[in-house]
Design a protein that fits this description.
five-stranded mixed sheet, 22-stranded antiparallel beta barrel, 678 residues
């Protein structure tokens, strides 16, 4: 971290400032960014932000693992290829099997808005490859205000949440909390988690991973969340922001995996200090320091093999990220410059233990999965925006120096350096037509799982078996991307067409054909297009739709494989809705989620062909003058049984030796939410 301190002091001395201008957000929203607003008001079904984004953003698809804590794919890429921040803090999951993705550490009721930026056009963040997701949570208000929500739904879902905010001209505070619980959802065929698993494992040795009889009907998850914020106006031009968020999840079931999460805890602490108009060289100086911690043990405790064998295995992982950012913004030469330095250090540690269910022996340590790995990054960045006649120009550059150090005595440390940059232009042909084009290059380094992860397998009356599926010789991935598009406004609506073409050099890919060191670098290409638009049919009826298509190909083949299709390239996807505002305080919305058959698969790495689907959802909302608002809805109205998540082998999923278990989506789900706002 010493390098970051020296760079930070240098920036303070030379620049005296930093700012992220609101005008940038507005302009980028038009061409490169999707803003999902009023998340807490609209997404009342559950705490799962990933599910909400998959419904709202055509380029995002959902990876279903459980009732909550699901992951996303953005433009055909996932995991570390997507940069996720919550109020500017970097939050990483601890689970190597992705049971706790970053978006699972914030719940929908606490969110103000979400910014989804597609492509390599964000130089302020380290490791933005396919895009970034920036979550902004609720802000405290000066006026005393509050909100109470009570929610109930199918499959035993219950949620209670509340928010209280208020203060003075100088100090404003906010506190929000929630608790929720859900049973195992049933698919369209009426099968819950345990039954889906039993249907898959029937007659195979994989049946030992069925849920034990005493755990067969247990709830799918329990989750509580607390968030507190204090904003202080230190002076007329200075503001201090403090926040703390705690997430506590217990007994989260993952039926298509071999383990379940015993608990998943995260703590996020954030401090921001801003100074406006510090000097003619600084329009605004922003300083941020944050820390996020995740504690995640997963085990076979609830499975049949634990009872039969008298012991169960636990894989306990933790991760800790500390970051500092200093940013300055200045107006000069008829343009706005923003530049700064940021640094982060992530520690990732994991170990396997065995616990006796008969007290025959105490907890036994087996070995480390990730041996106390530190990933430390220092980056400097600069960006600028300027208007030349009808053309709006934005450019950005970034340089990163990253080291990855492991405490393992058998694996090597790694160092990476990367230069990123982009240029984006918008031509405002007239007040109703915009053409835009962007060219960018970004990089991301391998994480500790991809470099060093080791698996342990216990078999009855046999010694442990170790499998090293990390590869310490990985290069970082570079993304070279071209984006083109047009946005056209009409009297009663608008249409936007976007295309992208991405060349991935040294793309980090999982090769399921290898006995060990499964991750390797390949070259690949992903391209696609998105069509979206809205139409105001009348003063009370609005139509909205988004269509997304992607194609992914391997330019070089993984060792021993021949299939040229990239994994996780989801098929043609449609989101469409019609909203009817029957009066000023009531509305009804009918929406469609549909996808074509998933035929272009990476069969060498475990993917299966999936049938297409179409699901209808209905929601109605009514507001009353006394501050009460009621929302009722039904998802999957016709109780379809379908799957949207494939079985790429980079996740450890249930397998009987040939096929891998697919998990179906929820069947018909009905819910009711009542809120009171004051």
């Amino acid at each position: 971290m010493k390098k970051s301190i020296y760079l930070s002091l240098a920036v303070v001395a030379l620049l005296q400032g930093a700012e992220e201008l609101e005008s940038i957000d507005v302009e980028e929203t038009v061409v490169t960014t999707k803003i999902v607003e009023d998340v807490s008001g609209e997404e009342v079904k559950s705490a799962d932000l990933s599910e909400a984004l998959a419904k709202k953003v055509p380029s995002i698809s959902l990876i279903r693992r459980s009732g909550i804590a699901n992951d996303i794919v953005l433009r055909g890429q996932k995991r570390d290829n997507i940069n996720v921040t919550i109020d500017g803090t970097k939050v990483c999951g601890a689970c190597v099997n992705r049971m706790d993705p970053p978006l699972s550490h914030v719940v929908t009721h606490a969110i103000d808005e979400v910014e989804v930026r597609e492509g390599p056009f964000d130089v302020e963040e380290f490791g933005t490859l396919s895009g970034s997701v920036k979550v902004s949570t609720k802000k405290p208000t000066k006026e005393l205000s509050g909100e109470l929500n009570v929610n109930a739904g199918s499959f035993g879902y219950k949620k209670l949440s509340g928010t209280l905010s208020g203060g003075s001209d100088k100090v404003r505070a906010l506190f929000t909390a929630s608790t929720e619980n859900g049973g195992q959802y049933e698919d369209g065929d009426g099968n819950d988690f345990a039954e889906q698993l039993e249907n898959y494992t029937a007659g195979t040795t994989a049946a030992r991973f069925n849920y034990a009889p005493e755990h067969r009907g247990m709830d799918a998850f329990d989750k509580t969340m607390y968030m507190g914020k204090v904003f202080i106006d230190v002076a007329d031009n200075q503001e201090l922001k403090l926040s703390y968020t705690a997430n506590r999840s217990t007994d989260v079931l993952y039926p298509s995996s071999k383990m379940d999460a015993t608990y998943d805890d995260s703590d996020i602490m954030n401090l921001e200090y801003s100074i406006s108009d510090l000097s003619k060289y600084s329009k605004k100086l922003d300083f941020q320091i944050y820390n996020s911690q995740v504690d995640h043990p997963m085990s076979t405790q609830y499975r049949a093999l634990a009872k039969a064998g008298g012991k169960y295995m636990t894989h306990h992982l933790t991760t800790d990220v500390t970051g500092v950012k200093l940013k300055n913004s200045v107006d000069a030469f008829d343009r706005t410059f923003t530049y700064g330095v940021d640094t982060s250090k992530r520690n990732w540690d994991g170990e396997y233990t065995v616990t006796s269910t008969t007290n025959a022996f105490p907890v036994k340590h087996i070995g480390a999965s990730i041996a106390d790995v530190d990933t430390e990054n220092v980056g400097v960045f600069a960006k600028c925006e300027r208007t030349l006649g009808k053309v709006d120009l934005e450019w950005g550059v970034r340089y990163d120096d990253t080291s990855v150090d492991t405490k393992s005595t058998t694996e090597k440390d790694n160092d990476y350096r990367a230069f990123s940059g982009n240029l984006f232009a918008t031509y405002n042909a007239d007040k109703n037509t915009k053409y835009f084009a962007g060219l960018g290059k970004s990089s991301r380094v391998p994480d500790a799982r991809e470099l060093y992860n080791t698996k342990y397998v216990l078999k009855p009356n046999k010694p442990k078996k170790t499998i090293v599926n990390g590869n310490p010789n990985l290069n970082q991935t570079d993304n070279y991307e071209l984006d083109l598009g047009i946005e056209k406004y009409y009297g009663d609506g608008k249409v936007k067409v976007k295309t992208f073409y991405s060349k991935l050099k040294d793309y980090i890919y999982y090769n399921g054909s290898l006995p060990k060191n499964n991750f390797e670098n390949i070259d690949a290409t992903i391209y696609g297009a998105e069509l979206s638009g809205s139409y105001f049919a009348s003063d009370s009826i609005t139509l909205d739709a988004g269509l997304s298509y992607k194609k992914g190909k391997k330019d070089t083949q993984p060792i021993g494989q021949t299939n040229s299709n990239l994994a996780e390239i989801t098929p043609l996807k449609l989101n469409a809705s019609v909203l009817y505002d029957y009066d000023s305080q009531g509305s009804v919305e009918l929406s469609l989620q549909a996808a074509s058959a998933w035929d272009d698969i990476d069969s060498d790495n475990g993917e299966q062909k999936l049938a297409g689907y179409g699901v209808m959802n209905l929601k109605t909302t009514r507001e009353f003058d006394n501050g009460i608002k009621l929302t009722a809805g039904v998802d999957n109205m016709f109780d379809k049984s379908y799957a949207i998540t494939n079985t790429y082998k980079d996740l450890i999923l249930m397998t009987d030796g040939s096929d891998t278990m697919l998990i179906n989506e929820p069947g018909r789900y009905m819910y009711l939410n009542a809120s009171y706002v004051f």
